[in-house]
Amino acid sequence: MVKDVLFVCTGNICRSPMAEAFFNALAERRGLPVRARSAGLSPVLDRVTEVAARVAGEYGVDLRGHRSRPLHRADVAQADLILTMTEGQRRLIEELFPEARDKTFTLLAYVGERGDIADPYGESLAVYRRCAERIWNGVERVIASLGGETESARPVTPR
Questions:
Q1: Looking at 15, 90, 134, 141, which residue is catalytic?
Q2: What is the CA radius of gyration of the chain?
Q3: Is-catalytic flag, 129?
């Protein structure tokens, strides 16, 4: 049974923190005994971007306290499921941690979709919102696959 999910992106300042926060909020709402964490393959900055925090806030989650952190072997060992934002990130994790091969997927592939979730860093608010929507939808389907309800629990978003 999956109890620990690890979301991974490049810098751990946009995509994976959003995925972690969305996942934990939905899991808590739906009473699932599972938690998510996040890490970056090459984090450089310390905090999430202001735009990522703003967009996450539109989904009812607060990223302002998040601090980026690098991916460590212990993170990989602890995780029951590792979800990356891109195929390149998935391949790199498999290269660095061959033992994680059977539990590492892209977020979209895990829910039966193709493609990557592109990094919105440095892009417009609209790009961040599209990115967040793709992450939210993917995370919602992961939650459903783990026994959560399938109904959308997304709050109304001011646009």
A1: 15
A2: 14
A3: no
Name the class of domain 4-145.
alpha beta
Count CB neighbours of 113 within 10 A. Answer: 14
pLDDT value at residue 148: 66
d(CA 67, CA 43): 10
Q: Is 9 a catalytic residue?
A: yes
pLDDT at 15: 98
Query: Which band of pLDDT confidence, cut at 50, 70 and 90, is reported for residue 44?
Result: confident
Domain boundaries, the chain: 4-145
Task: Take residue 118 and report the two structure tokens written for it.
Answer: 């592109």
Residue indicated by tokens 């389907």:
141
Pick from 12, 21, 14, 2: nearest CA to 139: 21
**Identified catalytic residue from 116, 119, 129, 130:** 119
7-37: per-residue pLDDT in tens?
A: 999 999 999 999 999 999 999 999 999 999 9
Size of the chain in residues: 159
pLDDT one-digit tens code per residue, 106-159: 999 999 999 999 999 999 999 999 999 999 999 999 999 998 664 444 443 332
Q: What is the C-alpha to C-alpha distance for residues 64 and 80, in angstroms, rounded to an integer?
A: 27
Helix axes 125-145, 50-58, angle to 10 degrees: 50
Q: Catalytic: 159?
A: no
